[in-house]
Amino acid sequence: MESEQDFLECERGRVFCLLMMSGGLLGAFTYLIRGNVFCNAQTGNIVLMGMALGKGEFIHAAYFLIPITAYGLGAVVSEILPVSVKKAGLLRWDTLLIGFEILVTLLLGFLPENAPYQISQVAINFICSMQYNTFRQAEGVPMATTFCTNHVRQFGIHFAKFIQKKDISYIKRSFQHGKMLLMFIIGAVIGTILCRYFSGRAIWGASLLLLIVFVDLVYADLTKEKGMLERVPRGH
User: Fold this and answer.
1) With bands split at pLDDT 50, 70 and 90, how would you rate the model's confidence at 1?
2) For the segment 102-140, what is each residue's pLDDT rounded down to a tens digit?
3) CB-based contact 193:33 (threshold 8 Å)
4) Distance in angstroms (rounded) separating the CA atoms of residues 87 and 17
5) Which residues lie across from 199 on neighbouring strands?
6) What confidence category does residue 154 fall into, taking pLDDT thresholds of 50, 70 and 90?
7) How many CB atoms neighbour CB 74 within 10 A?
8) pLDDT for 156-181, tens place per residue?
9) Contacts for 47 with CB less than 8 Å, ≥ 6 apart
10) Separation CA 221–CA 225 (nearest Å)
11) Average per-residue pLDDT in the chain?
12) What is the pLDDT confidence band of residue 3, given thresholds at 50, 70 and 90?
């Protein structure tokens, strides 16, 4: 059994909770006021592309290659850049990524309301992909921070195992995934309220959540984990 000291700050459950809230907020933001799409993952875009192809709407189908490519590019970048960041030895890649996400969400909040939705969609596709590929495990438990499907599945699996085996460890694991789902819902609720009152600037709610994570990670990199920048988080 791993102790608290075995985990990096970027693997802490509290970090993942804030990232899940940010993900829920971004999902509400893009759906409500940026084109009625969810940019946190690509299943919907791929289904819509297939539907367009089935209807013979080839130009419309080709459009979905834009967000899908942006998402794929985010994964590529998040695999390549950490090598250079590690050599610099200043901050962890995980920390710099959150800083980049803050910058992107801040800039998107300054876009005029009549700006093409695609700008926000592609930018959020890109950063969500990098985040999904970077933050993979929370205290040893595989997690996603930008969508919920696997959390629903894992909640059900571990709850069923608890019923079958009466082992309290399974209900604890089920609770961990349930907590992530709750954080995502809370983020979506906050995002909905912010969108109602602040329109495009609602995305700054995500910037604030990410800023809390960023300060926490920077502090860890410069103090208690200063000599551990070479260490790779679990799941990589």
Assistant:
1) very low
2) 999 999 999 999 999 999 999 999 999 999 999 999 999
3) no
4) 29
5) none
6) very high
7) 21
8) 999 999 999 989 999 999 999 999 99
9) none
10) 5
11) 93
12) low
Distance (Å, rounded) from C-alpha 137 to C-alpha 160? 22
**Residues 23, 101 contacting (CB under 8 angstroms):** no
Q: Which residue shows structure tokens 């930008």? A: 146
* pLDDT higher than threshold 80 for residue 5: no
230: alpha, beta or left? (left if phi > 0; alpha if psi -120 to 50): alpha
The b/e string for 119-150 (b: 16+ C-beta within 10 A; e otherwise) is ebbbbbbbbbbbbbbbbbbbbebebbbbbbee
- From CA 215, how far away is CA 101, in angstroms rounded? 13
In terms of phi and psi (left: phi > 0; alpha: psi -120 to 50; beta: otherwise), the region of 36 is left
Of residues 171, 131, 162, the one with CA closest to residue 147: 131
Which residues, 6 or more positions from 106, have their beta carbon under 8 angstroms from its beta carbon? 204, 207
- What are the tokens at 181? 């789902």
Q: How far is 42 from 134, CA to CA, in rounded Å?
A: 17
Q: Are the CB atoms for 210 and 101 separated by under 8 Å? A: yes
Residues in the chain: 236
